């Protein structure tokens, strides 16, 4: 069963189309992440689902009910914003119960819901504090709790962790995943942080220019990106690319002749013409492993970035900047020369003109 359905959705501001004939089905209990760069339309789409923006064309259904023109309060959703938006003069308990009191819910029911939300989010000791006495992570928990007390089927999150430092983001990311596992509610989450997307999502919708480029599991998006944009956007550091020509099962770039017999989609025997080859940094092998790769070459080490658990090495390969990921204990130094190989079994090929995956 679909919890949220979006049909032929358009949104324009004046003559500018922000969302363009967008269709999306979100399954009941799914954690869906809308991922993309700034201005791609992900927060705009979330605001349309929430009823904070009026659509130009199309329809929105929540649990089978057409809510396209319904007020936000009538849609059965709970929303968590990027800013905490807590009332500074109220205690945590007051912030959690404010919406319920405005809706004239019975006092016993309000207390029950506030207590349950506080237990789930582990903020019971904070109920009598005001927001000024809370840390950033605690404030964000309260903001999530304010949505939680509404007891709705669909939760919307608009970059809720972006104001937090790196450690708090990692901690709350785990808590959000555990929260979804406990509640089983449908959650739609907007972010530009691909780590959040990859770790939280059941499915990811990659957006660009008001349309969805690819909608599938994190594993599929990472390993089989539908086009060069998705391949470049997902991954840190991003995929290495070289532009060349496919001819007779060989990828020609500069002086290199790279055989494609190990390329995992090599069943496409008709592949030919200008193309991009993409190899992720962790799929560039070194040392003895390079000699067993489909193609190997000696390259200069231009920059070394120690990152603790691994080391990122920058080099140049056939005129293109290339990055490879090595073990954190690697002793490679700037100015060295090293042998690298390309693991084509895990690479991607894209048409030069359309940039679509071959």
UniProtKB/TrEMBL annotation:
Q: Could you give a GO molecular-function term held by this entry?
A: ATP binding
The ABC transporter domain sits at: 4-234
Provide this UniProt record's keywords sorted from A to Z: ATP-binding, Nucleotide-binding, Transport
- One Pfam entry for this protein is ABC_tran
Highest rank taxon of the organism: Bacteria
What SUPFAM superfamilies does this protein's entry cite?
Answer: MOP-like, P-loop containing nucleoside triphosphate hydrolases
Mind telling me which PANTHER family this protein's record contains? ABC TRANSPORTER ATP-BINDING PROTEIN, MALTODEXTRIN IMPORT ATP-BINDING PROTEIN MSMX
Similarity remark: Belongs to the ABC transporter superfamily.
Query: This protein is called what?
Result: ABC transporter ATP-binding protein
Origin species, per record, is: Histidinibacterium lentulum
